Amino acid sequence: MIQSMTGFGKVTAEHLSKKVTVEIKSLNSKQLDLSTRIPALYKEKEMPIRSMLLQELERGKVDFSIYIENIGKEAPTQINKDAISSYVQQLKDISESLGIDTPNNWHDLQALLRFPDVIKTEIPEMAEDEWNIVEETIHQAIKQLQAFRIQEGAMLQKLFEQKVNNIAALLKEIEIYEKERITKIKARILDNLEQITGIDYDKNRFEQEMIYYIEKLDINEEKNRLDNHLKYFLETMETGHGQGKKLGFIAQEMGREINTLGSKSNHAEMQKIVVKMKDELEQIKEQVLNVL
């Protein structure tokens, strides 16, 4: 069963006065392209988090974020009352010593809050039990994303099966025109020869040349190889995981055989069928980029 690289997971947990939210988004990419937004409190755990994501997600353009929301009565940012009192007293002393009137806005809180060290933000240390909760939240978000990938992968697999079966059906249609094609080619060559007057030709040599020419236009090998590629594509989807690159390579080989069929066909109806096959294959190639 294949998986998509597209996924989303979001889980929230609470610890004491904090609400922690872990969010992971994933899109398609050739390798693991990881972007993280981690608060300073959990920065020391960035490497273990990256290692966890690398091991579990394998490939994709992944955006990982942790958000912290304070839900307690105490705010993490505090006003330093002692600092404000000190600034007010210093300003009063300076004004008295210089004989300057005390400006009214010295007592304006908005002005005082701009002074250094008036606002202090404390970064508490992370407790071990808190990290255990955060780590479990990350695991749950990864599981959500993986479930999303499996769901999207099932939809992709149905699409691929439909497109592969369509190409197989079109390949069968080609057989209808194969004998007619050879007969028409031979008749056209004979027609052209008859229009050339005054030239005698060796009929035995002509038959030999015709056999050689028709062998060059033979498409049995291309048909067999394409049929094998179609079967291999379906088999690969059912085995293991991380088949995206392999499916891409098989699709490329399918394209080569379809192109050769088109160049060898020499028949209007067969060329129309080849165009339809190319259209089905392009849809496979477009979506296979999303497969993990």
Overall 3D geometry? elongated
| Overall average pLDDT | 84
Low-confidence stretches: none
Number of strands: 6
Strand content: 5-15%
> How many DSSP helices?
8
Helix-strand makeup class:
alpha+beta
How far is it from the N-terminal to the C-terminal residue, by CA? 11 Å
Write down the domain tally: 3
| Largest β-sheet summary | 4 strands, mixed
Radius of gyration: 36 Å
Helix content: 55-70%
SSE blueprint:
Elements lengths: L6 E9 L2 E10 L4 E6 L8 H12 L2 E11 L6 E3 L1 H18 L10 H4 L6 E3 L6 H68 L7 H14 L3 H19 L5 H22 L2 H21 L4
Parallel strand pairs: 3-4
Antiparallel strand pairs: 1-2, 2-4, 5-6
Architecture overview:
This protein is α+β, with helices and mostly antiparallel strands and 292 residues long. It folds into 3 domains: 7-73 and 126-149, Ribosomal Protein S5, domain 2, CATH 3.30.230; 77-121, no CATH class; 151-288, no CATH class. Helix content is 61%, strand content 14%. It contains 8 helices and 6 strands, in the order βββαββααβααααα. It has helices at residues 46-57, 81-98, 109-112, 128-195, 203-216, 220-238, 244-265, 268-288, and strands at residues 7-15, 18-27, 32-37, 60-70, 77-79, 119-121. It has a 4-stranded mixed β-sheet with strand order 1-2-4-3. Strands 5-6 form a two-stranded antiparallel ribbon. A hairpin with a 2-residue loop joins strand 1 (7-15) and strand 2. Helix 7 (244-265) packs antiparallel against helix 8. The longest helix has 68 residues, at 128-195. The chain is elongated, with a radius of gyration of 36 Å. The chain starts with 6 loop residues before the first strand and ends with a helix.
